[in-house]
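Q: what sequence does this backbone want?
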């Protein structure tokens, strides 16, 4: 019975256009999620739930970011193993000839040796107890990556997203990394005249 179904399916015109249909279904799925996020944001505004306007915007931004990530992570599609291996070998040869690390440098030599720099497909999670320097480390890595891109005259961009800190707090952390002044002193305005 299953064989009959499979053979009829293989002969149908639907099976011939399967990759295109898959892309269409994925595209419609992303559009549906986008519309759902907008509808939810509209309902939040109409119902005037307890969140402040900034919180409502942040919630919508988080949802849209998730949708964007999902859409971008699926751009590659299917690839034959031969193409993947050919690409890998040519990339290894190019890296060896030019002496380049495989990914975007972190600025931390030992870490770079372990992970071969940051790859486009990586999800990097920095975890630890409170006040262990996670944010400072992440900002240092972001600054190092930005400086590398600038040296290479690359059009790449480094962005920092934080669900816990405001842009003012992140800015203070960046200033702290460059200046060596405690970020709490910067945020509270308790800097010395020499520090300015």
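A:
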């Amino acid at each position: 019975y299953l064989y009959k179904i499979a053979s009829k399916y293989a002969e149908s015109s639907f099976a011939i256009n399967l990759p295109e249909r898959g892309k269409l279904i994925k595209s419609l799925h992303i559009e549906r999620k986008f519309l759902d996020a907008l509808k939810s944001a509209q309902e939040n505004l109409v119902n005037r739930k307890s969140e402040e306007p900034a919180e409502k915007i942040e919630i919508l931004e988080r949802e849209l970011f998730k949708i964007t990530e999902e859409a971008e992570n699926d751009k590659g599609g299917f690839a034959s193993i031969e193409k993947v291996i050919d690409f890998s070998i040519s990339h290894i040869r190019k890296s060896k000839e030019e002496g380049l690390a495989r990914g975007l440098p972190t600025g931390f030599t030992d870490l770079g040796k372990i992970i071969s720099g940051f790859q486009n497909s990586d999800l990097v999670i920095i975890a630890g107890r409170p006040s262990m320097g996670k944010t400072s480390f992440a900002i240092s890595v972001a600054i190092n990556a930005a400086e590398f891109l600038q040296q290479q005259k690359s059009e790449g961009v480094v962005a920092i997203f934080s669900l816990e800190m405001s842009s003012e707090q992140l800015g203070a952390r960046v200033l702290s990394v460059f200046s060596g002044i405690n970020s709490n002193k910067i945020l509270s305005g308790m800097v010395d005249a020499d520090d300015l």
